[in-house]
Write a structure and sequence with these properties.
The protein is α/β, with parallel strands linked by helices and about 400 residues long. It has 16 helices and 8 strands. The structure holds a DNA duplex (33 and 33 nucleotides).
Length: about 400
Amino acid sequence: MVQRDLDGFFESYLEKDPLFLNKKIIQSNYTPEEIPHRDKEIDSVASILAPALRLDRPSNIFIYGKTGTGKTLTVKYVLTRLGTLCEKKSINVKFVYINCKLKRVADTEYRLIAQIIRELGSDVPATGLPTDEVYKLFFDMLPSKTQLLILVLDEIDQLVGKAGDEILYNLTRINSDLHNCQISLIGISNDLVFSNNLDPRVKSSLSEEELVFPPYNAVQLQDILRHRSTLAFRENSIEDGVIEKCAAYAAREHGDARRALELLRVSGELAERQNSNKIKMKHLDMAEEKIERDRLVDIISTQPKQHQVVLYSIIKLYIDSKSKSIFTGDAYEYYKTVVKKVHLRPLTQRRFSDIVAELDMLGIICARVVSKGRYGRTKEIGIDIPEQNLKDIEKLLEDIFS
DNA sequence: CGAGATTCATGTGAAGTATACCTTTAGGCTTAA
DNA sequence: AAGCCTAAAGGTATACTTCACATGAATCTCGTA
């Protein structure tokens, strides 16, 4: 019986008109043919990078803008265009794109350089080598491979926050050490005031050119959504008003186009799953919740064990006590009991405090130091997880431990 | 009553330690001449 | 003698611990009105 149902299910799935024509187009890593409302920015980036075609070193660029304003997209777009042209004319230019946010990939000096080398096609061990040895490896392989390297460091603020700005200084200085090879840096940052606490030397050499990407407004967001949705979805598969609402959601969150597109995509997936032939408003609402939940699940499940235990302790304490905030001392006491149950070695309170700070950075919890006068000084820990997802997350963590 | 000292509970920086992993080197074994 | 493998030695980055000092407002203390 089950079998027959399944066959029927698959058959009706095939017969059904799919909502998506081409899902790839609306996924976040897709680079579209056209980027609406970013002409000026594309022109700027292109004209700054153009000297690369004559193997002159382009100026370093520093790009600011909130998330989802098309920074990464614009840079990647210009670079692929430039890249294909270079290939056609066999100009020896290489591009390396690195996202510094990725934990355990490019969040320290060593890992960043190692990752660059990997992108260029060699292999480096994850640990064990002296950092200057890795630099040396990098230097040695550069001239043989290429004459000009354009290095894109996305979310550069994360890197500097964790590893300091010495790396950038070293990178900008490389040019004076190399004769037949040059490097241009493109730094991309979400943090608008980030460069203020950089070493002045680094700052000046990194921001030879500066670009600011303004947020999209609601009308532009609608444009983008329409443009992509006509390519991605079957005709007439979106109910009136959905796109407008989608744009409005995202415009409220500082004009984040990525978020708007994701909202639309997930709505589509939900609608399809429900056998609906149109994307309706209710799907949009469901999508918003699902995105948030997926984001959390994604972040949390990739955390190291100890971090998960710390988070679990905080959540558990939060649910049990029903009080709005928790203090480090209580959380740590509770953590010690939990850690025993899952057979892990308990960490010190010092480390615990650091992990709390890291979780805070991830936006899962919010911690701020408060002084309670006579009764000492502590961190007040709150939780940034929407109430309706809290139980799910708690369960997720319990599953991980068992 | 108010200014200044005290106090608490933890934040936080610096330095040290453990672990996991890397390369180099030396010794032992095998192999081919 | 040359070539290859293995184990030990020596070195590193990273996550964590230890130590020691910093913080900052509620509370206490004490001089003054």
